[in-house]
Amino acid sequence: MELLAIGTSAFLPGFALAGVRTILATSAASALSHARASPKGTLLIIEESLVKDVAPQERAWLETNTDPIIITISADDTAQADRMRRAIRGTLGVDLMAKG
């Protein structure tokens, strides 16, 4: 399974440092285009702020798609970010959000 992070330049550095392939996206259209083009068996982590205002049918696709698996992460949702951080740290052994 490939791990891929899609987001803005502020979102991606920790993923890149951990060896996760990253794709810079500056709009919802760009993020969704990359997500739709992702190969089967990919786990996508998408920055929530990029896709928070997408059309309902796009939101439904993001939330129900199973291949690729899509997870959206918001830097503003501390509880969600902490859960994801612990899960990634436990799986990869690297804290992607560590500063410095």
Account of the 3D structure:
There is one protein chain. With 100 residues, this protein is an alpha/beta fold. It has one domain (2-92): ATPase, V1 complex, subunit F (Rossmann fold, 3-Layer(aba) Sandwich), CATH 3.40.50. The chain is built from five helices and four strands. The chain has helices at residues 13-17, 28-37, 48-51, 56-64, 78-92; strands at residues 2-7, 21-24, 42-47, 69-73. The chain has a four-stranded parallel β-sheet, with helices on both faces. Strand 1, helix 1 (13-17) and strand 2 form a beta-alpha-beta unit. The N and C termini lie far apart (29 Å).
Oligomeric composition of the shown chains: single chain
Biggest sheet layout: 4 strands, parallel
**How many angstroms separate the termini?**
29 Å
Please give the count of helices. Answer: 5
Structural class: alpha/beta
Q: Specify the CATH homologous superfamily.
A: ATPase, V1 complex, subunit F
The count of strands amounts to 4
CATH topology group: Rossmann fold
Radius of gyration, CA atoms, in whole angstroms:
13 Å
What's the overall average pLDDT, rounded?
84
Instruction: Just give the CATH class.
Output: Alpha Beta
Strand line-up of the largest beta sheet: 2-1-3-4
Features:
100 residues, alpha/beta, Rossmann fold, four-stranded parallel β-sheet, 21% strand, globular
